[in-house]
Amino acid sequence: MSSILSGATSLSPNVRQAIGIQVLARTEPISHLAAARQAGRKFIYQQGDKARRSLDTTFAPSQGNDEVLSHLPVTQNWLYQLILGIFTARIAVSLSCFAISLIRRSVWALSTIGSKLLQQPLRSIKPKTFQALRWVCTMRLTRLINLC
Question: What does the alpha-carbon distance between residue 130 and residue 84 come to, in Å, rounded to a whole number?
């Protein structure tokens, strides 16, 4: 009996796992597996049970999303900070909308000035004004307008 115990206790975890897989697969009788590994049939059955339990645990249906993941204590101070954060975000959105509105108006003003300058004869336009006009015309104003 001591030789059977020493054979079973000297097996590595990988070998024990292989024994469990072979028990579940039922490729060989338990007595053949026990004799090949120099272990008792009880040990072989135990390895099979461990393998079955780990498979059952792994492939068990999930419990769902109804379990509580954490607890959040809501205090008056916490609510105050939440409301302040929401209003701060709202103010930031309002300011960004205002900035976009200014950009739209600036683009509209530049395009209006550019169209008026294009109606004038080219000789009456100063060189610096012409360079500025060319820069405005080469910009992708439609992309900036469509951004808003």
Answer: 50
With contact defined as beta carbons under 8 Å apart, do 50 and 58 qualify?
no
What residue type is 91 in one-letter code?
A: I
- Tokens representing 56 are 């059952």
Does the model's pTM come out above 0.90?
no
Length of the chain: 148
DSSP letter for 61, please. P
Residue with tokens 């040990």: 43
Helix (H, G, I), strand (E, B) or coil at 63: coil
Phi (first) and psi of residue 70, to 5 degrees: -155, 170
Grouping H, G, I as helix, E, B as strand and the rest as coil, residue 52 is: helix
Over residues 18-41, the pLDDT tens digits come to 888 899 898 889 998 888 888 889
User: pLDDT for 60-96, tens place per residue?
Assistant: 877 666 777 778 888 888 888 888 888 888 787 777 7
| Cα→Cα distances 84→77, 90, 91, 92, 95, Å | 11, 10, 10, 12, 16
